[in-house]
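Sequence in, structure out. Go.
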Amino acid sequence: MPSLTNRMNYICQQTHTAIRGLASKFRDSHVRRPLTSPNRNFVACPRIALRCLSPNCPQLAFILAFLVALTTPTLPAATVTPASTPSSVATTFAVLPADPGPWQQILSSVGFQPQSADSADILVLRPGATAPAHITERVEQGAFLVLEGQTTPAESFGFRAARDIVSVVNVEDVHRPKLPIIWQKAVELHKFEIPKSAQIFAKERWTSGPLIAGYTSGRGAVLWIAASPGDRGYERFPYVLQALTDLGLRAPFRSARLWAFFDSAYRARVDLDYFAARWRASGIAALQVASWHYYDPDPERDRYMKSLIEACHRHGILVYAWIELPHVSGKFWAEHPAWREKTALLQDAQLDWRKLMNLTNRDCFRAASAGIKDLINRFDWDGVNLAELYFESLEGAGNPARFTPMNDDVRREFKTAQGFDPIELFHTRKDAESLRLFLDFRASLARRMQDEWIAEVEKVRSAHPDLDLVLTHVDDRFDTGMKDAIGADAGRVLPLLDSHDFTFLIEDPATVWNLGPQRYPEIAKRYQPLTAHANKLAIDINIVDRYQDVYPTKQQTGTELFELVHLASSAFPRVALYFENSILAPDLPLLPAAGAIVPHAERTTSKLTIDSPNVLGVSWKGEAKVDGNSWPVTDGSTLWLTPGTHTVEPDNGAGAPHILDFNGDLQSADRSGKSTIDLSYESPSRAFALLDHKPTKIEIDAAASPLTFLTTDKGTYSISLPRGQHLVTIQTE
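Output:
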């Protein structure tokens, strides 16, 4: 074996030769390559070697540093990124043989479109498929090849079955190594030998036998998977799409319309600017913030909330006060014991973390209303979310220890109307007819409470005209037992949309969390006939551990989550996630892709034609023309389009300024001068436009408007625009 010194000398000589050759090749080129080019490795690789070798050989470290400095060309402070070409954007997939299995669900959940096998960007070869001609060359030129199982094509790419057989039921994935991934049934699989260059993404937990592995090849990549992902696409391997992303595949489309619930108890001591930027990059447009922590004024807590709101606004995120009546606050509960709600056992209704108050009592109602108005006035909210404004419990009258309301006011009102005290239902009066009378009364009481509190928030709108309103209401149409269990009756509430302006956010009940993504189109079908305002319907997905037996993970993650979000986004205008802190880190980068809805996309050599019902982000580097005109809404890597059908093509000009991000419903955008952008939009709340140039003047509906903005440490500028439908002209430096 050569000595350490000889090996170091050899490495040094080879590194020096490689650097000289690459640098010479780079300098001889007449094309300026962007930093994202594969040729950047001529700088990066020696510096990696330098970090690895310097502890053992300071002399070598000095030599390498000198060589890098000598041979590395001077890079300009900033370079103009060349525009994308449509052929450089991967948008399509094909599956061979004819039966696509679960792959169409998997790949379409993040925006890829089906295409013929001879031209698809992603090619999946299932058992029984024959590899197309020149497949190796296609991978080298940028295609992504997915190989499923023990097949001849898999063997030709270096994934060979050994004699040993492993019973697989417990999987470890590199994206979340400690997450239990359990298969419902064990599967006997051969242990595989894989290419030395391949990275293992998933393995059998106890034997470490590889189950998912892949490697890059030229501009493309090869991914091998030991078995089918399962009928739904996620029963065995939740992180297949993350593995493809690690190999360089980029989702072609993205949305930035998601809402997320937020509880500051989980983010008490964090960098709020960092998290706001991360939330926005994950496609989150608004946070629904647990506001009961801030119901009672407190200097320290108030500073936190003001900082959170400002950080979110700086990055283009709306912030709503999530109000969880009849819980008001811990202090309110402690100071007003006479106003506490009662269960059917006539005990104070402290159920889990919620401390329920008797809002039927007029004194309690007025005191709580005054506090809610102060809460709204104290902070710069963009909206209010009246959530779960009904009763307990999920077991209904079958659990008197949790059944509400049984306070004196409700009992008195019901007795006056029906002639008996409802508390008798849990003692001497056991007939179904009497129980039905009270359950219907209870549902009407919940509807009355919702109407009252909507009216209270609307009073505040006179001083806060940009304030949006959301009513979160558990589903009782897909799970019809919810009406009797908690008094929730969407059929009574939805007519309020005829006279009030709010979003009706349907909460996915715990009883159906184990069902698949297809439930969301079904839920939408059951609500749309109930209102003429289907554009005001939204759906709330709970991303939490489920109490049912579910596989392969207790919490929705990976492909399962992406399918949930994608089908929910196709069925409803708005999707909310409960909650921000429960979304696992591996899922954040692909969430925006899951929310994007693209019924049709077609690519030619020179153009990309796209159709979408919502504002859509398109993966696109550099400048672009949209429908023949220079387009100003881009951050250099994502192009944001208005709803409808559009044609996108490269624009070699260096346009400025740009709208980097916009969180309203953009309807049009144009440059009317070198430093001026015109746009139109619609939004149920305020909207934020993020610019890359400092704004100097703004006109809204042809009238001059006061100019205020927030800045980030990246030199971007966030402008707040009013609720409603408006035409805006922005002038910049």
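Check: Residues 173 and 202 are 4 Å apart (CA to CA). The first strand starts at residue 92 and ends at 96.
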